[in-house]
Amino acid sequence: MSKTTLSWKGNLKNNFSYMKNTIVNSWNEWDPLKHVIVGRADNCCIPAPEPAVDVKIPPDSVMKGKHGRRTQDSIDKANELLDKFVKTLECRDIRVDRPTPLKFDEKISTPDWKAEHMFGCMPSRDVIITVGKEMLEATMSFRCRWFEYLAYRPLIQQYFMEDPGMKHESAPKPRLTDKDYHKNYLSDKVSIEQRLEWAEKKYFVTTEEEPLFDAADILRFGKDLIVQHGFTTNLKGIDWLKRHFPDHRVHTVNFPGDPYPIHIDATFTPIKPGLILNNPQRKLPKEQRKLFEDNGWEIVYAAQPAHNSPPPLTYYSIWLSMNILVLDPKTVCVEKSEVYQAEQLDKLGMEVLPVDFREAYGFGGSLHCSTTDVYREGKMEDYFPKQ
Ligand code: ARG
What is the dihedral of CA 327, 331, 335, 336, to 10 degrees? Predict the structure, then answer.
């Protein structure tokens, strides 16, 4: 009897000591990374046609008209690359957790719509954002991604138990009826020139029917949050974020030149305090640069990508070259084949860790997309005192 009690106490003690080790805390994109979530490729699907997806697949893309579960070979390859990336991080003493994949190839529905299948859980950056001690589930703006947060719930619930100061929040789930999308965007006949003109005028596929945002449209700079207004985040979504984070200053940014403005992290990439890479084809407009310039931040144009086209069955552009993961203000993970980006970062004084990842791009992006910070050392700081 006493022996059992003892071993039970022993287990309990172990659990408690583990509990003390979990800290949810991350205020920016560059402080030393200690704990991160890395996505998985299991059951990943090419989404079936739906308004938000259709507009971002160019008419000449091989993905047009294709949908369904990706091949097992490609899933296995992507998982192999993700696992290797995890090892690279663990070798640097970074704790890594993984989501629990759902049966993404099953049909889903809400009272408002049906979708043939879901998407996947590789780009965790799109779904969950950590702001300080809070982990927030985004509304999302694609129907196929409506339930994706469930893949992260086991981890988030674990952190909730293990860190008594952690806050778990979920943004209001949107209806995503047809009213959420501008009809004239949904035609194959819309030319790139037309899209560029619309983007310049801040007329995007999503309407202002209800608040919408994807977590990967937000960049964290301590007290300031920089949010891209585009296809996946509307002005109501940004207003929701402003009201939700009253201790932050929330700024809206646009990047004319991007015909498919989805997620900010292949367009604007902070490296360390005072230094940001900007996509040279999607320049931050002059009036929006003021905040950075007035506070001594340098905006450097990113090096050219090493490839002329993305790998097959990828939604995203060649600018995933900029989708790097900063481990601390001196160290950065860059995709192995992106030699020009690596060279530029090296010249900017960073230690570059090459990570083989290109064949996983199709599953939702590169090294920044596929991760969600849980803990970076450091606290909330004001990097833009002059405003
Ligand atoms: N829209 C970007 C591009 O194609 C890709 C952004 C991917 N980011 C992400 N978090 N999934 O250039």
Answer: -140
